[in-house]
């Protein structure tokens, strides 16, 4: 009986990394960033730690009306996603920075974000993702809160 318990525990330990979805996820996305409805684009990269938590990083760019004006956001954070199939809602939060380029001058600001979304799995290595995030910028002179609505295609390895 003891041997059977140890064998069962060993099976769970060996199987745990595979069940934990220690999967590399790469998600290019397009979005709209408010308050002025500007087009944004970027990429998220995530890796599963253990169910339901994964670490993720993202970089995305927002184009302004000016020829050289742009804002770039970098962030690192965590994502909590229960393993539901085929539709999986998730929550995400992170910390990072905003770099604003205005021609010859640049400025950098601390940024925090929180949001969530839904991932629609196709059964293979591809999923569709819709997301909403709120970014709070520290020390920024214009609006200090930005909202992003985005959609992307996740590739899982």
Task: Give a concise summary.
This protein is mostly beta strands.
Reading off the top of the CATH hierarchy, the class is best stated as: Mainly Beta
Q: What kind of sheet is the major sheet?
A: 8 strands, antiparallel, barrel
Helicity, as a percent range: 10-25%
- Broad shape: elongated
Number of domains: 1
Number of strands: 8
Oligomer type: single chain
> Could you give the order of the helices and strands?
HEEEEEEEE
Average residue pLDDT: 85
Which class do the helix and strand fractions yield? Answer: mainly beta
Distance between the termini: 39 Å
> What is the topology, as strand order, of the major beta sheet?
1-2-3-4-5-6-7-8
Characterise the protein shown here:
With 157 residues, this protein is mainly beta. It has a single domain (21-156), classed as Porin (Beta Barrel), CATH 2.40.160.20. Helix content is 11%, strand content 66%. It has one helix at 2-19, and strands at 24-34, 38-50, 53-63, 70-80, 87-102, 105-121, 126-138, 145-156. The protein has an 8-stranded antiparallel barrel with strand order 1-2-3-4-5-6-7-8. It is elongated. 24% of the residues are buried. Residues 10-20 have low confidence and may be disordered.
Which features does this protein show?
mainly beta, Porin, 157 residues, 1 helix
Strand and helix map with partners:
Layout: H1 2-19, E1 24-34, E2 38-50, E3 53-63, E4 70-80, E5 87-102, E6 105-121, E7 126-138, E8 145-156
Antiparallel strand pairs: 1-2, 1-8, 2-3, 3-4, 4-5, 5-6, 6-7, 7-8
